[in-house]
Automatic annotation (TrEMBL):
Taxonomic placement: Bacteria, Bacillati, Actinomycetota, Actinomycetes, Micrococcales
Database matches in PROSITE patterns: PROKAR_LIPOPROTEIN, TAT
Gene3D superfamilies: Periplasmic binding protein-like II
Keywords for the protein's UniProt record, in alphabetical order: Signal
Top-rank taxon: Bacteria
Classification via CDD domains: PBP2_UgpB (cd14748)
UniProt-recorded name of the protein: ABC transporter substrate-binding protein
Signal peptide positions on this chain: 1-31
């Protein structure tokens, strides 16, 4: 196998990977998708078990929900819990702050496998839900959703189908986001620029010197680093140039368009000085006026609007020569497979409530994350928000450019980590894409070769 051009030497599709998991009872594939897991997560459930018959099951009286409060949403989440408990007085929801971010929740969830500490409901981010599924730590939700009349047809199809595998959905969308282009309207005006985001990255290149001139030579664009972040927003630049991390299971880090995207990132930071990597938090730096623009999650919108002492503009991510694209991201919510049917039913009832049209609109208004139901996107609550704060509309409108993430990042164990390492070498060490992408490709392939291939 050539690690620069392919991840898996065997023909492996999403469907037959699940078949393999069932044949091996889940245990052989534990190492393949567990990342930093601790414990015997693969023993949680058997994927060959018959579908649960929910008829006659009574919901448990208490469930535990693990969340990281996306978008500083603890108070909002507690209010939603209060509303659910008022409508369902026989069920208590215990909210647990299980981590500061998606990665910390995932690591804790996998460490809890096989213990009494497993929650009933858990955050399942874009780069973690697939591992949960392969490890048989979560249940498919279609049957339960149907039993509860959860009206999944009202979910935005793109956001809901992000969790679809082998004709089943393994999570429901909750705090869902895309990256947005945020800009400081005061600095934009001072530079003589039109009141909008750059339509293309070429246009940004043309505008950057004008912005730098009114910023005492500072780089106008602030960007962030770190896992679950850098390899996410970079998809926009890469896809816009026609590149990709992978096509299904075949690696594409060596194709010219992907290398060109990596080297464009290198150039704007290290040569043009039109972009700078924030030391800690690019969103906070933008809100403090340290950069003229940034690429940040829709989930940061409320915080940015609250902290900025200037008028904030939002726009679509700039297009490349091959078009305008944005990755979807954020987190869904999944139900643990090791819990009793009674607990799963109660968790499903709360999940239905948590993601209904009223609650998703409330959550969106409080945080900036996108409403996940089509009926909520243009409902009364969001329409009022759009009128008051038109920046909220940008993320919803940009969904037309949304694209599902490449499997090398979202499905392959530690794929996001390996890609982030390469991108940080480009950004922070001025490394050429040709020098760092091959190792990322090889590391992703090795993750497969060592943990999956022996069991095929």
């Amino acid at each position: 196998m050539n690690p620069r051009s392919t991840v898996f030497s065997s023909t492996l599709t999403r469907r037959n990977l699940l078949t393999l998991s069932a044949a091996l009872g889940g245990t052989a594939l534990l190492a393949a998708c567990a990342g930093p897991s601790v414990g015997d997560a693969g023993q949680a459930a058997a994927s060959t078990a018959p579908a649960q018959d929910w008829t006659g099951i009574k919901p448990a009286s208490s469930i535990t929900w693990w969340t990281n409060h996306p978008g500083a949403s603890m108070a909002t989440e507690q209010a939603m819990i209060n509303g659910f408990q008022a409508a369902n007085p026989g069920i208590t929801v215990n909210m647990v702050t299980a981590g500061a971010n998606y990665d910390e929740i995932a690591q804790k969830f996998q460490a809890a496998a096989g213990t009494d500490s497993v929650p009933d409901l858990v955050g399942a981010s874009d780069v973690w839900w697939f591992r949960y599924m392969i490890n048989q730590q979560i249940i498919p939700l279609d049957g339960l959703a149907s039993h509860l009349n959860a009206n999944t047809a009202d979910f935005n199809t793109t956001l809901y189908d992000d969790y679809k595998y082998a004709d089943s959905h393994w999570a429901m969308p909750y705090a869902r986001s895309t990256p947005l282009f945020y800009y400081n309207k005061t600095l934009w005006s001072a530079a003589g620029l039109p009141d909008r985001a750059p339509a293309t990255w070429d246009e940004f290149d043309q505008w950057a010197p004008k912005l730098s001139a009114v910023m005492n030579g500072a780089a106008p664009l602030g960007i962030g680093k770190g896992t679950s972040w850098a390899a996410w927003w970079f998809c926009n630049i890469m896809w816009g140039k026609g590149g990709a991390y992978s096509s299904d299971w075949s690696m594409k880090l060596d194709q010219p368009e992907t290398l060109e995207a990596g080297n464009y990132l290198r150039r704007i930071i290290n040569d043009d000085k039109s972009a700078a990597v924030s030391a800690t938090d690019s969103t906070a730096d933008f809100g403090a006026g340290l950069s003229a623009c940034t690429v940040a999650s829709t989930g940061s919108l409320t915080g940015i609007l609250a902290s900025a002492k200037f008028e904030v503009g939002t726009g679509f991510l700039p297009a490349g020569p091959k078009g305008a694209f944005t990755p979807t991201g954020g987190t869904g919510m999944a139900i643990a497979s090791s819990k009793s049917p009674e607990q799963q039913l109660a968790a499903g009832m709360f999940l239905k409530y948590l993601t209904d049209a009223e609650q998703t609109a409330t959550f969106s208004a409080a945080t900036g994350y996108m409403p996940v139901r089509t009926s909520a996107m243009d409902g009364a609550t969001m329409t009022a928000i759009y009128a008051k704060k038109p920046q909220f509309r940008t993320a919803v409108d940009q969904l037309k450019n949304a694209r599902s993430q490449d499997w090398a990042r979202s499905f392959v164990p530690s794929g996001d980590k390996y890609l982030t390492t390469a991108l940080e070498q480009i950004m922070l060490q001025n490394s050429k894409a040709e020098d760092v992408f091959p190792k990322a490709s090889a590391d992703i392939s090795t993750s497969y070769d060592q943990n999956v291939k022996p069991y095929l």
